[in-house]
Amino acid sequence: MNQPISKADLHIHSRFSTRAADWVLRRFDFPASYSDPLQTYQRLRDAGMQYVTITDHNTIAGCLEIAHLPGVIFGEEVTVHFPDEECRVHILVWGLTETQHREIQALRENIFEFQKYLAAANLAHAVAHPFQSPNDKLTPLHFQKLILLFRHFEGINGRYLARWSEAAQFSLKALTPRTIETFVARTGIEPTHGEPWKKVFVGGSDDHGGVYPGRAWTETPRCDTAAEFLKNIREGQCSPSGEGGTPLSLAHGTYNTAFQFLKAKFALKPGDPAAGLIEKGFSRFMEGKDPTEFTLAEKIGFLAQGIASGKVFELAMAGNTSLWKELSSYFSKPEVKAAMARETAGVVEPERRAFLMANLVANQLGYRFFTQFIAQLSAGKFIESIQTISPLVPIAGLLSPYLHALRQPRREMARELTRTAAGTIPPFLQNTKRAWFTDTLEDVNGVATTIRKMIAAGVASGHDVKVMTCRSEIGDHGIPLMNFPPVGEFELPEYELQRLSFPPVLAILEHLIRENYSELIISTPGPLGLAALLAAKTLGIRAVGIYHTDFPQYVRILTDDSFMETLTWDFMHWFYSQLDIVYVNSEDYRKCWVDRGIPAEKLKILPRGLDTKLFSRSRREADFWRSRGLREGEVGMLFVGRISKEKNLDTLVAATRRLAEWQTPVRPLFVGDGPYLAEMKKLLPDAIFTGYLKGEDLARAYASADFFVFPSTTDTFGNVVIEAQACGLPVIVSDVGGPRDLVSHGKDGFVTKALDSIELSEAIRRLSEDPGLRERLGAAARAKVENRDWTEAFQKFWTNSPE
């Protein structure tokens, strides 16, 4: 029984498509495709295609090889230029002759002349992958011109991510006569066909690697000849079918192209035992299996080939086996086998299994070189440190099919194109799903607190936002969280107790694109932040950064090295200049970044909330500090935060000693932990140290003290400052850093000269000796912050990004 439809994969390539899209592959002279036309023809027929075409780039050579076979349609994918502009597009053409091919090639530098020729010759044609310009120069104006020039568009492309085909169909199906009138007025171009708001869609696999031919196709009513099939297409009696691509399937095809090319280039012949070994290893990789593990029957087969060919001893020579030995040695390690089994457990799709395996190997090799780099850098060997990471370059080359496949058109461009044609943005392109990257969620600091509170407020408000982190162990914070197990962890040089993770970059990229995240929020410029920045650039999505910590100041204090401080500034400037928006915590830091070259329009103040029910004067307990050693008649001077040198605690020590000389009845109270704790206990033996407190215990510690001192010059905001204010405490801060913006001198606290222990001790003495002053300033402090709210802060933050 004949099927009621006719089918053809109208977009597919062979070895005659010679120019690879990926720059790295071009550098190695890899072609765009290496599929054999005859094999492609047979596979398409086996897949149920009644008609077969090959659409190589600007050539019909592939079609000529199969011209003698039944059901063949001559086709090609033509690279066409907008004259006097940089933009190029691809147009699929079918049913042409050799003469027409030559004439088309002469006209493709001018899209307008090219279109006129196709119309006059009555050739079936369509705009290929409308949202993928081969040189990434497509603009909304070019898209409008394409709409006026062409009736047919590729509606399903089996190579590129399915959502771009969906976006193209969404845009083109929403056209109206009024929209067309607007385009005509804007471009000065008249439509080349009737009812230009009604478009026709076709489909094709766009297969390059010979792995997925027939993944997408075009259907028409049943017809008996290729001429009828093309007539149906020209008249719009057709529709696309099949499925779009994924980055992993695209990369899978690219690996197959590269392998087939190398096999031919190095003349690996079928009877050669080395060829059998390599080909079987590659086949296992394409199946997502250990490429060095073979069955006993396969091993006997390789040996038999070697004996039959007389090359058994040549195969065993060290030069031929060294690389294989290295690979076999690596994959035979029990920990590697266990990791591969764990990563691929339950995964059926061969392209995903292969990706997980490649990701595992690349991560471990990359981490090995990275740790060597950190060791050399810590030892001050800068030249040697660069040399240690040079092997990462060939690793990146081997992974380039994945890097190329994961790279996407800039999301904002896709939004502009859909808005141009449809007047709106489809839900899957709206900025409604965001990932918040942080290295420090588990740490006890203001950054972690801000992230947890903001995420919780956002989720409670119905927003789709999730934390992305990378830790070997992660607690339950009651917020949406994705933890990528680290490849390894290392200590941050000169910053005790702080560990950073080496993230699995490819896994992060693939997860973000698969889950369709529309914006990345980056809280820290560490390894995970760098991975997020790479992801944003690769995936073409918006990246927002938050400058939480004054790292250059930290480096200066911790290393006492101005050169290291300069290097840190250079890195920070590079990192934050790559982002679309940068949030800072104060006007002071905003001005600082403007002075350092970040455009003012990219800088915004980060909204901050506060739990004013938790942090309240009502939490005060007279015995809280007395039970810990505070004596009757003493005034409690509180510090909360990381006990570390960069908090300028030495200034507080000097001020406290001066107060002791004046016999001021003040007792230092410290809440927190850190690498300087043991030293502080020696310097201030009479002080009270509680260690880390949280929740209601922390709120009681604030409310039960008499005033708050925070001498840090490195904090960009100071959550602890507003928490103290909410508990009704007057606050003393320095005039350098973000906290000074939180205190009005003489109204709700004091702002003293940075690192000046004399001025700090004077402010402390004033508050210690005047209970009435403490009461007035504390009440003003509470009034200043009582309207802060995390939900409102998050809403302001969320709406600063375009929907």
Describe this structure in words.
GO terms for molecular function: glycosyltransferase activity. This is Glycosyltransferase. It holds the Pfam family Glycos_transf_1. Keywords: Transferase. This protein folds into 4 domains: 243 residues, TIM Barrel (Alpha-Beta Barrel), CATH 3.20.20.140; 132 residues, no CATH class; 175 residues, 3-Layer(aba) Sandwich (Rossmann fold), CATH 3.40.50; 171 residues, Glycogen Phosphorylase B (Rossmann fold, 3-Layer(aba) Sandwich), CATH 3.40.50. It has 34 helices and 24 strands. The strands form 5 sheets. It has a 7-stranded mixed β-sheet with strand order 5-4-3-2-1-8-9. Strands 12-11-10-15-16-17-18 form a 7-stranded parallel β-sheet, sandwiched between helices. It has a 6-stranded parallel β-sheet with strand order 21-20-19-22-23-24, sandwiched between helices. Helix 28 links the parallel strand 19 and strand 20. The longest helix has 29 residues. The relative contact order is 0.06. About 3% of the residues have low confidence.
Show the helix and strand layout.
Elements: E1 5-9, H1 23-27, H2 37-46, E2 51-54, H3 61-65, E3 72-81, E4 88-94, H4 98-107, H5 111-121, E5 124-127, H6 140-149, E6 152-157, H7 162-173, H8 177-187, E7 200-204, E8 216-221, H9 226-234, E9 239-242, H10 247-265, H11 273-286, H12 296-309, H13 312-315, H14 318-331, H15 334-344, H16 350-378, H17 382-388, H18 392-398, H19 400-406, H20 411-422, E10 433-437, H21 446-460, E11 464-469, E12 481-483, E13 488-491, E14 499-502, H22 505-514, E15 519-522, H23 527-539, E16 542-546, H24 551-559, H25 562-577, E17 581-584, H26 587-595, E18 603-605, H27 623-626, E19 635-640, H28 649-661, E20 666-671, H29 677-683, E21 688-689, H30 695-703, E22 707-710, H31 719-726, E23 731-734, E24 749-752, H32 757-769, H33 771-785, H34 790-799
Parallel strand pairs: 1-2, 2-3, 6-7, 10-11, 10-15, 11-12, 15-16, 16-17, 17-18, 19-20, 19-22, 20-21, 22-23, 23-24
Antiparallel strand pairs: 1-8, 3-4, 4-5, 8-9, 13-14
